[in-house]
Amino acid sequence: MTQGVAPARKTTYREAVRAALREALQRDPRVLLMGEEVGAYGGSYACSLGLLEEFGPDRVRDTPLSESAFVGMGIGAAMGGLRPIVEIMTVNFSLLALDQLLNNAATLRHMSGGQVGVPLVVRMATGAGKQVAAQHSHSLENFYAHIPGLKVLAPATLEDARGMLWTALEDPDPVILFEHTMLYGLEGELAADAGPVPIDRAAVRRPGKDVTLVAYGGTVGKAMDAARALAEQRVDAEVIDLRTLRPLDDATLLASVAKTHRAVVVDEGWRTGGLAGEICARLAERAFYDLDAPLARVCTAEVPIPYAKHLEDAALPQVEGIVQAALGAVARHG
Amino acid sequence: MGEFRMPSLGADMDAGTLAAWRVKPGDLVARGAVVADVETDKGVVEVEIWEGGVIDALVVAPGTKVPVGTVLATLRPSGSEAVVASPPATAAAPARVLASPSAKQLARDRGVDIALVRGTGPHGAITREDVERAADSAPSVTPSAPPPAIAPVAMSARVAPPDGAAMRRAIAAAMTRSKREIPHYYLSAELDVEAAQRWLLAHNAGRSVTERVLFAALLLKATALAALEVPEVNGWYVEGAYQPASAVHLGVAISMRSGGLIAPALRDAQARSLDATQAALRDLVARVRAGRLRSSELTDATLTVTSLGEAGVDSVFGVIYPPQVALVGFGRVGERPRASGGMLGVRSVVTATLSADHRVSDGHRGAVFLRAIETLLQQPEKL
Q1: Touching check for A46 and chain B: CB below 8 Å?
Q2: How many domains does chain B have?
Q3: Between chains, do A290 and B103 touch, taking CB under 8 Å as contact?
Q4: Is CATH 3.40.50.970 the classification given to domain A9-191?
Q5: What is the mean pLDDT of residues A76-91?
Q6: Are A235 and A323 in contact (CB under 8 A)?
Q7: Closest by CA position to B339, among listed B349, B353, B327
């Protein structure tokens, strides 16, 4: 990760995304941004505010409300030599473009015997917490992490929001970036010269020796809060931010569990068939003899995300649930 | 549905004859109970069962010879009404030990018997920390359950004594395997047992013949305690790796009147008093002669002791019984001239020898072991 020596300045996740978009548009004339309301409105989460004025309608383009059409357009542009960034309003809507992403973007290099690549970057919002109910709030990262031919990223910090986009654009194959809606308002310090970061490894956000908390995207902050609460109970938790959901960085996971012998996986996706299950399976396969307690998962309840605030909170992984799962893993009886 | 199978009662056994059943369908059996007599090349053995339950069906009829692993009887879980047959040797134990994979691995690495570790984790499971605690408390003596009482059930069938040729074949197979696979090294040391002899004389004074402790019991106990200090001689070499044992089950070589030799285990020798050692030894010899050994006694030994002193030899260099890794030999105990401090005196001495597996230990550790036996014998009252 690039650590600037330049003085840090206060910013937000949203501004870090915007800075990354601006840098990409400035550095490479082949880059363009397109999607619903990215232009005149400035993006449904205001990530592209001001970019239409700065770069013009050829580079920042509003599209019709048809995910299949504009993702397909992005794939065509990428095949034709451009470096498109396509924004999809939420992961729920991306299902309309799943055919394009799976059957075309992820597959064309294979189908063409290596002749055609699709250097496309798709950004989309994911996750719950804003009371936008069951058609705008789900975490379906695992749908995409399932697909060979895609890379899937989940920036959870200002550095990653700022740095992952350019690295993704340099990749010769399609990359999906998931931005959790609750992170856009995240405030923090970011080095003035913050730049591209690697997208092939997980990060240990907090070292610890008693239990590994695995999280990504919107649950990293909750896992960090849980680790602080656990520290007060003298449980030293290690927090791993997966960062990249496909391909998973097994080495970092295995090294951590070899040290702590216990793991709790926090995933805002549903439990059944989800990423948390995949991670548990890998640990069971490759770290079996390191495990000193059953693996545990803290996932979203298996319901459509409710509109009501208290029900939405109850459905999602929360700090208290993570703490309880970790205490269960390190439990001592007698 | 559980299954009770023909056990392997030694590295060289591939089949056995079911001599008699001690149970019938419907009987409730506890883990550790004797359920059958099995005739092998080494005689008739009382076979224990390692899973509790109710006998569902006896599959193999008495007099039938079957390969090791053959299902002899089927079991169903207890709970249905049933008659208690064999006396429960120990309380019914849980079917399996609950332990984390990491704890099991650590127990293997550190030579800890996981069955003896107390679990403190989720659901009472054994964790790494529990194993570490158990390993750190070694080599203190592990408490063990009292030896199961002998079932007061008369042998339901008299069986012919073992065929001498068959026993010869069994010994030949085991000893050939030993000399082929185990790189033996040998050490010999003359131990001063003057103090032990004097103490034993006083200890036995006024006791009837049957209450007296024989010198062999002191040698066995000292050997067991020394083995705790040098774990490289007490355990099994299995599949290319040494597994030290936490308890010392001493195989005691006993000659059979019909010819041949057998070395059943005197279990938990490190934990028995001298009187208890003597009693166990007497019991073992009697049961060897009567053909009444238990299956666990034939397979559990972790270190063998052979004494040929009474036969008049000065020392014996034995052949290790696989998968064990050492054998201790004692020769004749007697008075011999010994120089000490510039003076010549007459002292009681015995020559102790060690045959040990060079894959597991080196001569230096073997020497430490023999020295430990001698040191222990200097304070017989503490044995």
Answers
A1: no
A2: 3
A3: no
A4: yes
A5: 97
A6: no
A7: B349
